[in-house]
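Subject: Protein entry, chain in single-letter code together with its fold tokens

Area: Proteins and the way their chains fold up in space.

Attached in line: The record itself begins immediately under this heading.
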Amino acid sequence: MELTNMLNKVILIGHLGANPESKTMSSGAEVVNFRIATSESYTDKATNKKIDKTEWHSIVVFNPHLAKIALQYLNKGRFDIISKNTMKSIACL
């Protein structure tokens, strides 16, 4: 069996739809939730019209240090870059 390291990276560049909200879990851990809108535009070749497309992404921050930073610095309407990295070992059979 061969183990391969793979990188899972997500980068969202967009605007916050609302101020982050903090919630306390039954375990006592604090989590922070917020939504970020990403947009793209293109020209429809058939109609020659500009098309705008917006997608909303729900973000949940479980890391206590990052949750504190999100509450302190993120605000509604702010343009931000959200990046997430995770390393996973995958067994290739």
